[in-house]
Specification:
CATH superfamily of the largest domain: Mur-like, catalytic domain
Strand order of the largest sheet: 6-7-5-8-9-10-11-12-13
CATH architecture of the largest domain: 3-Layer(aba) Sandwich
CATH topology of the largest domain: UDP-N-acetylmuramoyl-L-alanine:D-glutamate ligase
Mean pLDDT: 92
Number of helices: 15
Strand content: 15-25%
Helix content: 25-40%
Distance between the termini: 77 Å
Low-confidence stretches: 480-492
Length: about 500
């Protein structure tokens, strides 16, 4: 835990008691603040109390006594409309901050020589894999790396600050919305595609939130920018024109005169001179698909920016184990592979998964993003059959209708069972059953992790049932009396 002493002796409201809210409440209490924690959800309040966080209804208090409101990232700040606690805080001039902002202030309060390094990773897609890969490379190369933020642990739940540490933070647009003081030694902006518009209202607002990862960078800091989406390519041009000396492009679609790119299954390093191949991506089995080339390029560029040697970085990438719910292999039954890509909560992420396989039985659906799956139509030819779940099932069926075979299954259990049954009935023993929903999960699940775990549980149930039926079949065969073989003449 990182104790927050800034508000020692003062009253602080914390609203939203999921991962980041709980860690913020504990860190503030450890630093001497008087914490008033609340959540509209009774189960969330019960969980907080079970973890030692005192819960008090902040709706009934005089808000003028609060020195700050620490707002969890999932709570609406501006769109579709501000949450009532946001309006209460604004009405009386209470500053609204986040756990990441508390972390940034704690870092900045230390003498310059005692501050850890901070690597911030954002983008619409790939940020979790990239952040985890960066942390893996650093750890393999002997660095004290701490991974958190929007992945794994809340940032304030990480080990205490010290000068030798490197904090690798996955930063969502929700988290960046409330960041003012964060300075990243290395900032990574991977890509941008339409997403979370219900939260930000417009693409301009969404981009503005993401760009805050670059806020406060100085002359010695690095900006690693993906140039395969138009908005981020323009951003790199703007940064370069502004005279930022250490802005490096990355790509998985184009050769670069400078930067790091992934082309033809190879990673090329052109950061300090002529681009040279440094890694065969086939040697990194946990990073399948062209989109993971961009993730590898970004992680490689970051590792070079912090001074690591090329060969050590490449060797570390090869040993990366991958992440749950990101093209995760969930099992194989009778030649049918099951791939868990529950993290694909928008069409752009699903396009990367569909592109990774020549043919799939595609499980998709949930709470649809704006525009549905129309943008995926160039990839529909890869879909052997679609099995649709959740709120988006009927609308996705209309989009796919007439192009590919479709079955509206409703729930995940039926979709998994039907996809496997179809694969076996059609003799497709090299089939891939891909959960890549292109949707948010909140219509049927707590979050994408819950959806992915349910998928893996359904695969385990199928494995058990298939194994039992196989054993029963073998037992039946062994009970049949085989007639003796009659041999005539010499040896057969």
């Amino acid at each position: 835990m990182i104790p927050i002493v800034e508000f020692a002796g003062r009253d602080v409201a914390v609203f939203g008691l999921a991962r980041s809210g709980l860690s913020a409440a504990k860190a503030l209490s450890a630093g001497g603040a008087n914490v008033f924690a609340w959540d509209d959800s009774e189960p969330a309040r019960a969980r907080a109390e079970s973890e030692g966080v005192a819960v008090q209804d902040i709706n009934a208090r005089d808000w003028r006594s609060f020195a700050a409101l620490v707002l969890s990232p999932g709570v609406p700040l501006t769109h579709p409309q501000p949450h009532r606690v946001v309006e209460l805080a604004r009405a009386v001039g209470v500053p609204i901050i986040s756990d990441v902002e508390l972390f940034a202030r704690a870092v900045n309060a230390r003498p310059a020589h005692a501050r850890p390094k901070i690597i911030g990773v954002t983008g619409t897609n790939g940020k979790s894999t990239t952040a985890a890969l960066i942390a893996h490379i650093l750890e393999v190369c002997g660095k004290d790396a701490r991974l958190g933020g929007n992945i794994g642990r809340g940032v304030l739940d990480l080990a205490p600050l010290h000068a030798g540490a490197i904090y690798v933070l996955e930063l969502s647009s929700y988290q960046l919305d409330l960041v003012e003081s964060l300075r990243c030694d290395v900032a990574v902006f991977l890509n941008l595609a339409p997403d979370h518009l219900d939260r930000h209202g417009t693409m301009e607002n969404y981009l503005a939130a993401k760009k805050r990862v670059l806020r406060n960078q100085g002359a010695g800091d690095w900006a690693i920018i993906g140039v395969d989406s138009p908005e981020t390519a323009r951003l790199l041009t703007q940064i370069t024109a502004a005279g930022v000396p250490q802005a490096a492009p990355i790509s998985n679609r184009q050769a670069l005169g400078r930067g790091v790119c992934a082309l033809g299954g190879r990673l090329y390093d052109g950061l300090t001179g002529r681009a040279e191949p440094v890694l065969e991506l086939a040697h990194a089995p946990a990073l399948p698909g062209a989109h993971n080339g961009q993730n590898a390029a970004a992680a490689y560029a970051v590792a070079r920016a912090v001074g690591l040697e090329s060969r050590r970085i490449a060797a570390a990438i090869e040993t990366f184990p991958g992440l749950p719910h990101r093209l995760e292999r969930a099992g194989e039954i009778d030649g049918v592979r099951f791939i868990n890509d529950s993290k694909a909560t928008n069409p752009d992420a699903a396009s990367q998964a569909l592109s990774a396989f020549p043919a799939v039985r595609w499980i998709a659906g949930g709470r649809a993003k704006e525009g549905g799956i129309e943008a995926l139509s160039p990839l529909f030819a890869r879909v052997t059959k679609a099995y649709l779940i959740g709120e988006a099932g009927p609308s996705f069926a209309r989009t796919l209708g007439g192009q590919r075979p479709v079955q509206v299954c409703g729930d995940l259990a039926q979709a998994v069972q039907q996809a496997f049954t179809d694969a076996r009935a059609e003799g497709d023993r090299n089939s891939v059953v891909l959960l890549s929903p292109a949707c948010a999960s909140f219509d049927q699940f707590k979050d994408f992790e819950h959806r992915g775990e349910c998928f893996k549980a359904e695969v385990r149930t199928l494995e058990a049932a298939f194994g039992e039926s196989t054993r029963a079949g073998l037992a039946a065969l062994s009970s049949v009396t085989t007639p003796p073989v009659l041999r005539f003449g010499g040896a057969a």
